[in-house]
Specification:
Strand order of the largest sheet: 4-3-5
Protein name: Nucleoprotein/polynucleotide-associated enzyme
Order of helices and strands: HHHEEHEEHE
Helix content: 40-55%
Organism: Gynuella sunshinyii YC6258
Number of helices: 5
Structural class: alpha+beta
Distance between the termini: 106 Å
Largest sheet: 3 strands, antiparallel
InterPro entries: DUF2058 (IPR018636)
Length: 182
Amino acid sequence: MANSLQDQLLKAGLVDKKKSQQIKKQKQQAEKLQRKHKVSTEDDKVDITAVRQAEAEKSRELNRKRDEEAQARAIMAQIKQMIETSHINHDKGELAFHFKHGTLVKQIYVTAEQQAQLERGQLAIVSFEDRYRLVPRIVAQKIAERDAGLVIFLNEPGYAGQHQADEDDPYKDFVIPDDLMW
C-alpha cells in the first residue's frame, strides 16, 4: 500500500516527526471546526458569494417588476378617476354615432349636440372596462399620454366639413346636406 506524502517525506528525512504530527493535528482541528461550525473554505466562500450575488440580482429583478406593476396600477387608477369624474352621460342619446374600434364598426347613441361635438373634435370616445364613454378632448389627450390604446375616437379640431375632394371624384359636385340622417 502506498504511503502518504507526509510519511514519505518523513522517511526521506525532509520533515521531522514533530513537525509532521503538528501539521496532522492542525489539519484534523481544521476539519473538526469545519464539521462543527461549518467554517467554509475558500471555495465555499466563493460559492456563497456567487449564490448571494445571484439572490441579490433575483430580488432586484423581482422588486423592479413589482414596481412596474404598481406603477401600471397607479396609471390605470388615474385613468379610471379621470373617466369617472369627467365622462359625459350618453345613455339618453337618440342618434347612433358609428366609429371604428380595431377592425369592427361600433356605435353609441348620442344627442345631436354630442354628435356635433364629436365631429368637431371637442369630445372623444374612450374604451374603459368594456364600455365606451364620451369625454372632453382635454381628458382624452391626458388619457392618451398614459395609455393611447384607450382613446378610440378623437377628431382633430376643425376636421368636420373639411373633406378634401379628389379631382377625379365623380361625386364632387354633389354636396351631402348636414341634416341628412342615415
